[in-house]
Amino acid sequence: MPKKDFKLNRREMLKLMGAGATGAALNSAAPFIRPQFNIVKSQSNVLRILSHSSPQTEVYRRAGEAFEALTGTRIEITECPFNELQPKMMTELLAGTGKYDVIPITNAMLYAATNYLENLEDMYTDELMADLPPAAVEHCRGLEGELKAVPTLSSLPANFYRTDLLEEAGMEPPTTWEEFVEVARACTLDASSSHPKIWGALIEGSAKAVQPAVKLVGWFYQAGGGIVGPDNMPTIDLDENVEALQFIVDLIHTHKVAPPETAEMIYEDVHNMFIQGRGATAINWQYMVGMANDPEQSLVVDKFAAAPVPEGVAKGVNIDHWVMVIPSDSANKDAAREYINLALSDEHQLDMFRTEGLCARMSVMDPENPEVYEINPFIGAWVEEMKWATPQPKWKNLNEAWLRLSFAMNSAVTQSSSPADALERAQEEIMALMED
Amino acid sequence: MSPNMSLQSKPASQRASTPWDAWRDWVRSHSEMLLGYSFVAPALLVVGAVMVYPILFNLNIATRKWDWSTPFDAPKPFVGMANFADLIASDRFVNSLKVSLLLVLFALLVEYILGLGLALILNRQFRGRRIFRTIFILPMVLAPIIVGIQWRYLLSGNFGIINYVMFQLGVDPPAFLSDPKYGLPILVLVDSWMYVPFVSLILLAGLQQIPQEVQEAAEVDGAGSLARFWNITLPLLGSSTAIVLLLRGTEIFRTFDVVYVLTGGGPGRSTEVLGILLYRIAFGEGNFGMAAALAVIISILGMVIGGLFLRFIRTETRLF
What whole-number distance in Å separates Cα of residue A106 and Cα of residue A323? Predict the structure, then answer.
């Protein structure tokens, strides 16, 4: 029998095209044909937490162990890198998988997720409200002002400085920008056979993370600037902000007291260099206290202190918070509330303080408490800063806005563009983000 | 005689008159074709589920406004080509396209030249050839993420071994990962480090296909080694060159992982390739509509680049 030719004739071709068209039509109806996700409804005896990999998560884990002992409900923690936390959370929330019951996030991540989160107004007792810094409560409010989160950790950068180097140089800890430059100049030491180069000032300037922008905004406030107008619209390109960014650029390129690698540095690089004794001052968060005092990893034990960040024409620092949220699609909302309550107890807030250098509840961080003082001898610097710290704006896509600002900072410190151009561009980009 | 053949040979006047009979006749007369289709149907279904549906879904999303404020199952407004228009008009897209194309150009050039050099060396017999060949293909088997991290630590300004060695040698080390002018060259360097072995293996296979007699005949005719390389080796490597250009060209164009880990698109926007831009639009801004539009553009551009290489291949090698 002769082999048949498998060429398609016109009619068959038309049939295939018809099938393709049907597929396309089905696709255009995709919003109505809802794919069924594998909905993971939490079992009543398991509480699932999504958290980023950090010492902070270990605090949540320890609270989880206590929670299990108390209630019999087991805690399962899924960890991801910090940069992946928001995408992962949003993907889960959008798809409504119900996979997680509690998610610790930064306040900057809260606003994009507001619509998908449980209202936690009922968790705020008068006692708790009175024990939290006002900025912490403000950071837990969603775009409409409703309380959608509970804070577990306040974070503020302070100015760490090497007491031995300053003493050698005969300098006092800097309190103003001018003094900051003077100290940094006096303490910048060239490399010799006895030590590697010591930089006068360690700051962040990477475009890859949000943290450089969060700290940059503090410099804006110190210059008399700000990032949000009365109508909640961004004011990134104010002259005062440009001046602040120029100040940072000058630290690297004019005064040469900050490393050229500032452009690739995030907080981890700052702490690594500081604890290795390669920086005389460093602007970083409170967690660095414990790290710099740990003889197993630090060369500067008992050789450093921390003070409030220096002021320009004004005092200013950008405060941010870690907060806990409960997704609306969680099947374990009551247990999630109980867990958060436990995480806010004295015991676990003190654990947070011990691990991260601060916590959320003011009564736990009482500087008069000897235990607190022993953990963070410089707690006074942060308590002082909290008095004039500025809360962050409520922008729908604040996390991405920080990234755009980090990018602007990076462009300026790499001298790819002037501070004015970089901030003007950031202003345009952030405005566009808000319009989306 | 098979039943099929008897049916096919039935005169027109005797064919079934009812629609059912007509349908049965059609099935019988096309049984071989239908059998063929039934064999490939499972594979087609799988391909349809994992490839075609996502592509169609992506096309659909590219024409809609969808961001983080809209749940997956909520209606998403149709915006036509607005996502494409906004994207193409943006500086970020133009910059990323430029970076991606420059990366393809320079990385291909470097990889081809070095790969060819290595292939020529490996094509000769020398002591330790096998060990050398084993060692030099090691970068190929490493995951791109690991390569990115490894190079980030090597090139780090503060902790990098390269800067340390340069410093010890009395050379003022440049800020490799902080200075935009080094951004693209570093990507070319790292990509080449990973893929020169791959390129050289393909070219080596090509070299080993070249008949020795041709080379010997040219040598007898007085052709020098350069002339033989230029007039014999290189033209006869056409098919291998074609494969290298096609595979590596499209691969470099859609690169993401190494760049994400190594530079994250910086310093500035000097290494923000299209893949990084897509990731940032989708998972930074949560603008899925625009990200889908960018995915469509990247696919089309990838096909164009692949098509251009195929055209080059046809012209140069008459292979296809």
Answer: 6
